[in-house]
Write a structure and sequence with these properties.
The complex is a heterodimer of chains A (115) and B (112). By secondary structure, chain A is mainly β. In chain A, strand 4 and strand 5 form a beta hairpin. Chain A is globular and about 40 Å long. Chain B contains no helices and eleven strands. Classes of the chains: A mainly beta (115), B mainly beta (112). The interface between A and B is medium-sized, with 32 and 28 residues.
Amino acid sequence: KAGVTQTPRYLIKTRGQQVTLSCSPISGHRSVSWYQQTPGQGLQFLFEYFSETQRNKGNFPGRFSGRQFSNSRSEMNVSTLELGDSALYLCASSLEGGLGTGELFFGEGSRLTVL
Amino acid sequence: GQQLNQSPQSMFIQEGEDVSMNCTSSSIFNTWLWYKQDPGEGPVLLIALYKAGELTSNGRLTAQFGITRKDSFLNISASIPSDVGIYFCAGSHYNQGGKLIFGQGTELSVKP
């Protein structure tokens, strides 16, 4: 069974640009969550999508957005990039997300560097 | 954002030693989970706990869901070099299984 796939693995952007990250969940999983990991703040929850609807949202500015497609694949977008957005962005999938056990399976992440 | 208090922050141990780490929270959790993250990879789920007092093992790993539902610990017995990595505790509230709150991590180093 294939795991969670994230693309791209690495990317470099400059301040003010925008970026889109993609996540393909484990087959059959309907929930996708996104997390930001930085050395200073650790792992922070961004948002969760379930059946194309945002179920939960963390404390991030509106520049961070996401969506989920009918095949459960998800994308997240960060607009007007700032230096502080440099981080590892992790996608996690689960069968039912908030309705389920909370067991999340993570991808390898997309490492974003903002110059 | 909210984080769990995880300790210790780092550990340097000899191969074969046992390891213990724990997490505490100011709020009650419905689920406690323990993850391990290797460099350049995403966290991998080690153990999931769903009931207060529950004690669960996965090979040399044993974790417990605290009676108060505000804490959890992870023990690793007879450590080996491949145990090296960062261990994270995480908790989720009722009906918020997709939103995990993570501890700061415990970096484990094992000396052969």
